[in-house]
Amino acid sequence: MTNTIKHGQFNRRGFLGASSIAFGALGLASLVPRAFAAPAKLSDLTLAVATYRGQDSYFTDDAGTSNTPYKVDYAEFAGGNLIVEALASGSLDIGGMSEIPPIFSIQSHREPKLIAVLQGDVNNQVILIPKESNIESIAQLKGKRVGYVRSTTSHYFLIKALKEQGLTFNDITPVALTPQDGFSAFQSGQLDAWVIYGVFIQLAKFRSGARVLKTALGYLSGNYLIGARPAALEDPLRKQAIQDYLQRQARTLEWMNNNPEPWAEKSAKLLGVDKAVFLDVYNNRSQPYSVIEVNDQAIASQQEVADLFFNAGVLSERLDVSPLWDRQFKLLPI
């Protein structure tokens, strides 16, 4: 039987048959809609997620949030700048970072989309001084050798603390070091002060009696940003998985807030550090962990960081951070 198409009418069977023959003759058969292909499912999807050693991804079993309807492929990173690069290259779907790495990504036009905010501790970022030091104020850092980690919250915190005293980097001897190198330099007496974050604070306190000159409370926002690969947000199924993952991450962090003893014990095993170090972190934190939706305050906070870096000469131009942000993800109360 012959299929016909009358002028002014579409016969569906005839149209599809003729179209497939025409496309096939042109080598374009792959462009014909696959009407009988199985629909994509969450269970077939793998979400690529960045993590840091000992962070919330290591506690999903404890929190009961590991049973995702999709697969999760975790990759460890040493810093937010590397996570931004991995998001830009397409090897990651989502990952966390401070407010700073996305700012520097604007100039390279390899920006992530910032989809949520993880609010965390700012007392785990400090200016340390040696046990026997007679330095008692930020103003006394003038002329001193001060270690910091370039293009991180450590860098921003130091600029802001100095500015408050009418000082700049020109008034100190700044020494840019990785956290590991900074720890060695501080322990060996090569630094008069060290601006650092995380477990290195407790290690320096426990091993050499280092003292905290100033915490970042009042200097840092406590906002750690969750970034996504822009192309991942254009895939409805992957976007659905990201929404689910954010909600699970919020629940995992809530478990960590409410279970300091098992959290500290497991963290100690993961990082090879005494449990007391992590209990010290917990007992001195400025606020519990939480994941919140994008809001005006978070955007304004990051803009303040970008402006400070520009005014300090770290950035060559004033940057607008607002295009980095995406407000489409919503979070349910836990």
Automatic annotation (TrEMBL):
Keywords: Signal, Transport
Localization per record: Periplasm
Residue ranges occupied by any Solute-binding protein family 3/N-terminal domain in the UniProt entry: 46-259
Lineage top rank: taxon: Bacteria
CDD domains from the UniProt entry: PBP2_SsuA_like_2
Keyword Nucleotide-binding listed: no
Record family assignment: Belongs to the bacterial solute-binding protein SsuA/TauA family.
Protein name stated in the entry: ABC transporter substrate-binding protein
Species whose genome carries this gene: Pseudomonas yamanorum
